[in-house]
Amino acid sequence: xxxxxxxxxxxxxxxxxxxxxxxxxxxxxxxxxxxxxxxxxxxxxxxxxxxxxxxxxxxxxxxxxxxxxxxxxxxxxxxxxxxxxxxxxxxxxxxxxxxxxxxxxxxxxxxxxxxxxxxxxxxxxxxxxxxxxxxxxxxxxxxxxxxxxxxxxxxxxxxxxxxxxxxxxxxxxxxxxxxxxxxxxxxxxxxxxxxxxxxxxxxxxxxxxxxxxxxxxxxxxxxxxxxxxxxxxxxxxxxxxxxxxxxxxxxxxxxxxxxxxxxxxxxxxxxxxxxxxxxxxxxxxxxxxxxxxxxxxxxxxxxxxxxxxxxxxxxxxxxxxxxxxxxxxxx
Length: 331
Ligand code: UFG
Prior knowledge:
The protein is α/β, with parallel strands linked by helices. The chain has helices at about 10-20, 55-65, 80-85, 85-105, 140-160, 190-200, 225-235, 260-270, 295-300, 310-320, and strands spanning about 1-5, 25-30, 45-50, 70, 110-115, 160-170, 170, 205-210, 220, 225, 245-250, 255-260, 275-280.
């Protein structure tokens, strides 16, 4: 299938592009490189340096390339920044996404796959987290993703848009061959920061909160490999043939790991000691978030290949070892 990957030069999008090719699909990349990396995408692939909110240009690309399905990975994703700069988040994550969806309707493209997040649930009532839990985000980032989920439902009713929305838990790891991986600026995610502490690129890793009501007092998260996430998206394509189809899936391994367990996994995989500082809780961090992904397993036949935190960290370490400074494609 001919697929437009919006945000295809970003962390999850670039991994999905390679999984699409492995599955026999034909990706076209749209990315304005605000956060993405040109080097994360093979140079021979069709690449448009265009803003997803540019309705006319996107419509032209959809028509010229005869796109059949759009995948959207191009959201801003810093929870803390979304609290201090909400307009930036509503502008890109909601307003520009609406323009993208309008361009799709203009060009009669009716299939859409959306990167949503477990942050749409806020602090969950129950664990593990199933799709039917109430959605009550506690920050603008989660709210913008929930807003788009609701827009998709409306467009599905009104115009027959068929979509799948995936609520990711903690996307982590890198491609197994070490060619592409996680390179955020600034980096805020736990695994790359712990690796930086292991190799001495930063002095230490601060554990944000050691007094949570969890087995070792640190937060529990569900780290899920980017290639596993990507494969679930592709498995959903078959579900979008029916006009107006609506699908929601929570994607995680279902196994929670604490911050201390992540640090131990990095020490084991790298063979290096990680200097740790116990720090205050980070505002807005729920104590525990982990998925029940039975629905994705049953309906998409989704199987997690990277089923332990060590396996995920091994791939992040392979990427770090191959490219310690990341892509280095910014001035
Ligand atoms: N953490 C530390 N020290 C650090 C960085 C993180 O202790 O230096 C802890 C956090 O407090 C949290 C865990 O490590 O308990 C994971 O933190 P991340 O920042 O890596 O990830 P989050 O769980 O905060 O956020 C992720 C995604 C968001 C998404 C969110 C949903 O990155 O995009 O899950 O809750 F919104």
